[in-house]
Amino acid sequence: MSDIRHSPKAPTRARSLAAGESIDAHRHDEHQIVYAGSGVVAVTTDAGTWFAPGTRAIWVPAGTVHAHRAYGHLDLHLVGLSARDNPLARDAPTVLAVSPLLRELVLAYTRDPDDVSPERRRLLAVLRDQLRASPQQPMRLPTPTDPRLAAVCEIVHANPGEQRTLAALGAATGAGERTLSRLFRSEFGMTFPQWRTQSRLFHALRMLADDTPVTTVAHHCGWSSASAFIDVFRRSFGYTPGTHNRRT
Question: Are residues 128 and 83 part of one domain?
Answer without folding.
Answer: yes
